[in-house]
Amino acid sequence: MKQPNNKEISRCAWCQGNELYQEYHDREWGVPCTDDKKLFEFIILESAQAGLNWLTILKRREAYRQAFADFKPEMVARFTEERVDEIILAGKVVRHRGKINSAINNAQVFLKIQEREGSFANYLWRLVDYQPSPNSYRDPGKIPTTTETSIKLSRSLKAEGMTFFGPTIAYAYMQAMGLVNDHLISCFRHQQCAEYGHKSLRRQ
Where does Zn(2+) bind (predicted)? Predict the structure, then answer.
């Protein structure tokens, strides 16, 4: 989709002033996602963000892609302790052994859910009845960091065995994957993402 001239549009305040942030905002953030590979990618990235700035992770996105086998859960699930040591020594991603081990564990959980449900997307989108939440915030200060749904998602994934995925991370994940549309209504992407969300998301 061709984007409007930068001088003619309004964006969410959080992405302004940084080209990488803006590109991510304009092309990905808030678009309803039913692609299991990308859903897994963002489980790794959002979990890695815990306690950190999202830009810190976004700058290392390609390094994470290389370190975590192009975000293929069946490969990450088989990572050994030696592979964890290699990732840490390479120093290209956040060197937090707990988060790296969590990514391996979460890959195993992801595959278990995928096998049981047919796809991880079916499991995830059923939580919101296969329909993105059409939020309409005008003030960025009003956008929550957790909701009842993010708490429910976090608890559900924790019960499945996932780690480093608390309610705040769960809500950031929901925003990124388009389960909620948290673009401000003044942002040019608000209506575009709302239109993406009109299609049926059942049993992709």
Answer: 12, 25, 183, 187
The enclosing domain of 191 has a CATH number of 1.10.340.30
Give residue 153's domain range: 6-196
Does the annotation place 198 within a ligand binding site?
no
State the Cα–Cα distance between residues 161 and 191, nearest whole angstrom: 36
Q: Is 187 known to sit in a ligand binding site? A: yes
- Asked if 24 and 189 touch (Cβ cutoff 8 Å), the reply is no
**Does any domain span residue 1?**
no
147, burial (CB in 10 Å: exposed 0-12, middle 13-18, buried 19+)? middle
- CA dist list (Å): 92 to 28, 51, 56, 191: 23, 18, 11, 37
25 annotated ligand-binding residue: yes
Catalytic residue among 54, 117, 160, 196: 54
Which pLDDT does position 9 carry in this prediction? 85
24 is known as an active-site residue? yes
Q: Which of 16-20, 78-82, 146-150 has the lowest mean pLDDT?
A: 16-20
Please tell me the total number of residues recorded for the chain in this structure: 204
pTM of the model: 0.93
Say which of 29, 46, 123, 137 is annotated catalytic. Answer: 46
User: Does 15 count as an annotated binding residue?
Assistant: no
Does residue 15 sit within a domain?
A: yes
